[in-house]
Amino acid sequence: MAIITDESKVQEWLTRGVTNYIDKEHLKAQLVSGKQLRVKFGIDPTGDKIHLGRAVPFWKLRQLQDWGHHITLIIGDFTARIGDASDKDSERPMLTKEEINNNLKGYLDQIGKILDISKVEIRYNSEWLESLSFDTLSEIANIFSVNEMLDRDNFSERHKNHTRISLREFLYPLIQGYDSVMVKSDLEIGGNDQYFNLISGRKVQKYYNQESQDIVTFELLLGIDGRKMSTSWGNGIFITDTPSQMFTSIMAIKDELIIDYFRLATNISKGDIENYQKQLGSGANPRDIKLILSSAIVKRYYNEDEAGKAQQYFEQLFSKQEIPDTIETISIGEIEDKRLFAVMAKVFDLSNSEAKRAIQEGGVRVNQEIIQDIFFELNQPHTQEYIIQKGKKHIIKIVY
Asked: Which of 293, 315, 317, 386 is deepest in the core (most CB within 10 A)?
């Protein structure tokens, strides 16, 4: 397959959503040279769902894949045990093998919504890291100094605040860098919070007499609440969400994030995005622009028909204050524990504590009435159905 070398496409790839490069001119020359690059991207299965923020580099990979480059996807089944501290202000707990394996179950299906998995080299870094000798680890560790580690923003803050930093956390960028050696990557991409880890790959490659990989980092997509999108913070929009859930969640983002979502989460042209930005600056109703945005994102992961149905669902539920006809329906016979928190945990895929907290905070309605009693039971006499709503995203009908 001939490598696509269109300079205008390469230039857009190098600028849209990009925050850092090393080395930009070298990488640009590589991309327009016709050489097939080995492109590395790693993802740790620290949760079982991939959100729109994590999908940003995947879509960048898809472009490179379509241009004919070789994509090496590293599933960090070993590094997930160590824990990446890049965006953390406290120590990340170690995951067990069992937790990681559970998280991995649906990963490739999700990634397959973006990449052509049949053309991806998939590697699990436990292949080489589980058997890494102490001699080799010592050699890699000798490349770095404690001072370099403490210069990282989050480590620097934690050190200043006397917050514990485990030696385990220092190991993470070393072994991520070793991954680059093992797959001989020409280019590694990642989120902006991965900059230090990607640079580490360059240093470790140099030690092993490999040409240092180019690196590119991308902006982080913020979540519904304006913080970095994160599974642990509960502000994510997931690519496994139903079309109506996805549409509704995007409609809930802060107005100031609309243009960022267009740039990072859609393939809408730069000219169209600039036009939407002008409209917003001229006083257009942000809700109208969000409808376009939500439809574009749902269409990207599903199709135009599903995007239309999702918009109809949203307008029925929030504009007309109606219960949509298309909501999922479950028979009460399928649910053993009929206490409200237990039902919510089952049908909305929540933990019991998450469900209880949502109820206590007044974020749950049953048949349009706010319920704050966590032990409320769905077995009231003469009630044949219950419409349960959690916030703006979750709604389901329970029938007898």
From this structure: 293
Q: In what order do the strands lie in the sheet with 214-218?
A: 18-22, 214-218, 187-191, 38-43, 70-75, 120-124
Q: Tokens 């319920």 belong to which residue?
A: 371
DSSP string, 217-244: EEPPPB-TTSSBP-TTTT---BTTS-HH
CATH of domain 329-399: 3.10.290.10
The CATH code for residues 7-218 is 3.40.50.620
Separation between Cα atoms, residue 231 and residue 222, nearest integer Å: 12
Q: What is the pLDDT of residues 350-397, one digit of tens each?
A: 888 888 988 888 888 888 788 888 888 887 665 667 888 887 668 888
**Which segments of the chain belong to CATH 3.40.50.620?**
7-218
Low-confidence ranges of the chain (pLDDT < 50): none
Q: Which residue has the tokens 């590395």?
A: 40
- What is the CATH architecture of 243-319? Orthogonal Bundle (1.10)
> Where do the CATH 1.10.240.10 domains begin and end in the chain?
243-319
Q: What angle do CA 88, 92, 95 make, to 5 degrees?
A: 145
